[in-house]
Every structure is written in structure tokens, then in C-alpha cells.
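Hi R.,

Here's the chain you asked about this morning:
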Amino acid sequence: MNLIEIEMPDGTAEAYLTGSGPGVLFFIDAIGLRPQIAQMADRIAAWGYTVLAPNTLYRSGTAAETSPQPGEDLRAPGGREAFFQHTGPRIAELTPERLREDIPAYLAALREHADGDIAVVGYCMGARLAVRAAGLDPRVVAVAGFHGGGLVTDDPDSPHLSLPDARAEFVFGHADQDRSMTPEAVAALDRALADAGLTATTDIYPESPHGYSMNDTSMYHQPGAERSFEELHALLDRTLGA
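And the predicted structure, written out as C-alpha cells:
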């Protein structure tokens, strides 16, 4: 997996860059920038897009250091749960204040390589970053979030509260029975999208657990994963038109 480097406010972030055409910023999950992410980015790039997937966990270490280590199999019983015992401090580094500095740097790096408009896609924790990106930059024309958690919280800086500043079209594929994104939270997100006057499609994917798109973990669910790619492909074609 060949990576480029992006100069960031607090160091250097590696990123996977692939494809050509309009730009898609790919926000990773908490499992890190790893071969699974590169495979997903390559699939999106094959539709006619430039895809940049940065290591958003760069403050906690390199892509190699923050991804599963040799011998760690997140598909094995208990493997994913054991890995997530290490991720809490890494995720805690991604405060709203730091993201307001990081996200423009990622968008600027993508614009150096991409043509035309920009879309953003995020998975798990990356869905929160994708929503914030649209709120920070009204030039973002599309946002997709799949099995995202914590999109609606009681925090005064909750991601959904940035929606009035967005101009993008949104697509969300929520995980079924997700404790990090309950039906009540999904309904609140839908209300926030409607109140902001944004075009949005949201759904809960039946029987698809949190993390359903990642086939290197025990949570992979092929029907949900394939549906997410179909929804993303349609969104990008509508808004970027590669």
C-alpha cells in the first residue's frame, strides 16, 4: 500500500491516494488505514474518481502502528473486541477543535490531485468527520455516511449541529440495532437534515451490524456492504458526474 504524506497542524498524516477525476475524501474507521481501506478506495476510484484516504489517527501513530498488527485477526472470535481496547485514546484525540484544523487540510490535499467538485464518505467514526467536513466547507457537494456512530449527541458541538452550514446532498446507511446510533438518534438526524433544507436519503440496513462494510472484521455483512457501495455510487454519479 503506497502512501503519500500530508503536512498537518500537529505533524504528518499518511494517506492512500488512488484514481483520477473528481475528488472523494474517504474518512476511515477506528481500525486504521490498512489494506481493506485501500481496496475500498480502489473500488470507488474505478468508477472514475480520485480518492484520498488519510490516516486521521496520525497523532496516535503511523498507519502501520494504528492498524491491526501481524497476527491480529479481527475476524476471529473476540479479535475485534480485543483490538478496540486500544482505540479509545486514539479516537479521543479527534476533538471538534482539532478536526476543525485537520479537515480543511485533508480537503486541500485532495484538491491538489482531483478535478472539479468534492464529495466525502465516512465509515463508523469517519461518518462523523464526513458530516463535519460538509459543515466546514460548503463546496462539498455530497456526503455519505455508513454505519456511523455518534452523529447525534447531547454535546453542544455534536456533528449534526453543523448541518445548517452544509450545502451537500446526504446519504446515510445506518447499522441495524446500533447502540451508537439508535432509532431516536436517526430520527433526530433526519429532523436536522430537514430543518437545514438539505436533500437527504437515510435508511437502517436490516440485519447489518455496526461495521458491516469492513470484510476484514467479524462484523462484515455482505448485503449491507454491497448496498452501501450501490448508494454511494449513485450519489457520486448524481453530484460529481464522473
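The first helix runs from residue 35 to 45.

Let me know if you need anything else.
M.
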